[in-house]
Amino acid sequence: MPDFFTNFYTQFSQTSLLEWAATLSGFFCVYLAAKEHILNWPISIISVSIYGYIFYHSRLYGDAVLQIYFLGTAIYGWYYWSRMHDQTEVPIRRFSRRQMLFTFLAILGLGLLLGGLLSYFTDSDVPYVDGFCTATSFVAQFLMTRKIIQNWLLWVAVDICYIPLYIHKNLLLTAVLYLAFAIIAWNGYRGWHKTYRGYHLKEN
């Protein structure tokens, strides 16, 4: 056990400045998203650009491509949220059980497709884990841009799955960040759920 903590500390202390920059900007991005603050999108652009470079060089190709998608959704989300002057113009919405079932099936299908492509075309040593995490993140990010409350539950699940993956890739600071992401995502769900309930109580 002491060797584990020694190795953990050694790897943690060797974290690059680039990963620090990606981690800090990523933390503030998710924190602001949970608060429904529009500045989460421009900060996201910074974070995903850096992480795209880091993941590519760590052979996490699914995650590297995912950052390009995140970049596009950040630009779209910034535009979409900027169209509202107050929250009532783009209210938080909830998917039905049927819609969530289709969402899970979409994640499963996309995860298998991405895992197969990564296994066949790249030298990734974790193609299907990378593929499923990428697929879940892909869908969760889109749901966030549309202010679907269940996006946070998907983020909680995938953030927890990412932690051992990043430890495996010696991205320890990023693993710690994703633990923080999971906590923030859960708080984000609770905050959005409270706002959602308050909005519908006013309507009734």
Structural topology:
Elements: H1 2-13, H2 17-34, H3 40-57, H4 61-82, H5 97-121, H6 127-145, H7 151-168, H8 172-203
Helix pairs in contact: 2-3, 2-8, 3-4, 4-6, 5-6, 6-7, 7-8
Main traits of this protein?
204 residues, 8 helices, 80% helix
Explain how this protein is built:
α3 (40-57) packs antiparallel against α4 (61-82) and α5 (97-121) crosses α6. The longest helix is centred in the last third of the chain and has 32 residues, at 172-203. The protein is mainly alpha-helical. Helices cover 80% and strands 0% of the residues.
Number of strands: 0
Report the sheet with the most strands, covering strand number, pairing sense and barrel closure: none
- Unreliably modeled segments: none
**What would you call the structural class?**
mainly alpha
Span of the ends, CA to CA: 57 Å
Q: State Rg.
A: 17 Å
Q: Indicate the overall shape.
A: globular
Percentage of residues in strands: under 5%
Oligomer: single chain
Number of helices: 8
Order of helices and strands: HHHHHHHH
Averaged pLDDT? 85
Helix content: over 70%
